Input
Amino acid sequence: MPELQPIVLASADDHDLTKLEQFRAVGGYAQLERARQLEPQAIIDELNASSLRGRGGAFFAMGRKASFIPKDSDKPVYLCVNADESEPGTFKDRELMQKNPHLLIEGMIIAAWAAGINRSFIYIRGEYQHQADILEAALAEARGEGYIGERILGSEHTLDMVVHRGAGAYICGEETALLDSLEGKRGNPRLKPPFPALQGLYKGPTLINNVETLCNAPAIIENGADWFAAMGEGNSTGTKVVSVSGNVQRPGNYEIELGIPAREIIYGLAGGPPEGHKIKCWFPGGSSAPVLLEEHLDLPYTFEAMAEAGSMLGSGAIIVVDDSQPLVPLALRLAEFYRHESCGKCVPCREGTNWTVKSLERIDNGDATPMDLEIMAQVQQNIIGNCLCVLGDSMAMPVGSMIEHFRDEFEQHIEQARAARDREEIAVRAGAELASVAEAGPA
Amino acid sequence: MSEFAEAVRKIAAQYPDTRSAIMPAIRLAQEQHAGWLPPDAFEQVGDALGLTPAYCEAVASFYDMYHLQPVGRQLVEVCTNICCGLEGAQGVLEAFEQELGVRAGETTEDGAITLRAVECLGGCGWPTIVAVDNRYRQNVRAEDVTGIIGELRGAEPHA
Output
């Protein structure tokens, strides 16, 4: 079993880190003093040198993002934490906020310091009421200690933090939809550019980071960029909290060093599929990631390797599907989700997700012919890259990959469902004929 | 100023623009209207924030957690997305439907419980997730459902 190297979940299981005192007892908030000695640019340089990349799904370098924030903005500059974790299979930020809320706050203070930010918001999905309560309590404690508020730690710097609760909309995890939602609108994505770093919340420059990303900042300040960059492989440095779910024996969150083989995560840590079963396919990065197969299990779990294999590391959520699972119902449930969550603004996504659901329903009901499979595959191609955001792509990619890898199974499903429906129809017709004969009576 | 408008005014002070307070304001209005949003609620929110009721309703209708129709006194939500689904969520949902005598999306005749099938709740490591009034229950199996409903019915003040 691979050795775990916790950074963001360190001490979280043997201490109650939701309490400020206990968080401080394990070295919490100690990096603020150190960060304060540094020039903002020096913090950004350190983050850059660490190659810390965004843990929300896009893997964009955090230091670079922070460096895009203009230094001389005449509008207020904001920090928005993306805690709208809604990608199916992903439950890492929930655990982080629940167990280690002060670490997020410490990371936010460091980021705000680096980018010259005075106002920050944590956009947390509405369903995470328990975690929002924990964050509110932690904020109150941190405010009481002078870590946030006016003139923090005796400096000239002011930092406000507000927990903003969402209300059930997957799309609000998309950064520009998040901004619209936070501005009190429907959560529709915006056209980019301008990117949020230049024109974000209320047109002010806005730094948007995922919870886990920010949680890594204090350790980088403490131990240095070299220490962080020494972990991982290539451009995928540091650790990653991987949420493993689906058909495995020990589902849960595991903080691993990036670059260990996926097999070690799925089998070594999560126990693999139930006895007697094999892996049929797996999503390496949430339900939006194209599925991979058994043959990909020995790839290093890195951003680069997953991309080269035709998928993505995404939010770091591995969903395992074993050989007992039929794929048509799975693809259908997936498509239903994206149809439900499409904001409806772009036609390819709004119509494409609906068409895909209809096609998969036809396949499952026995109304489809093999031509439907072709049409459906084409629909996926016509969604990808044609919308303001990637929600439509997020359905098209996994559904497209399932058809690609398991075309035989889809074709078989079409045949079998048709045959079953035909048998039913014949039985109904035969029944009706018998009934009419009986009604007519003996000739 | 009404008590509601006063509460909303305080929330709005946290934001760069008062419009940002619309989500917390709608949530508060919903809490004060038995868990859903009748037309009155939108007037209240609109008045408090200087927005039209129609705008408030348009925003509310975008989000799953705002209810535009009456709901039961308790809300039971079963995650049926793929991770819970791979581990038997459909069976859990069906057990609730059978136990309550309603389909997903409906409310029991006595107005006690609304049952909903919902998208991923972010608890995929502990399937099936069932949220009762937003508090998660983990690892729920079909055979646990009778007990859960018994517990909820028992907790009703006038049961």
Summary: The first helix of chain B runs from residue 3 to 12.
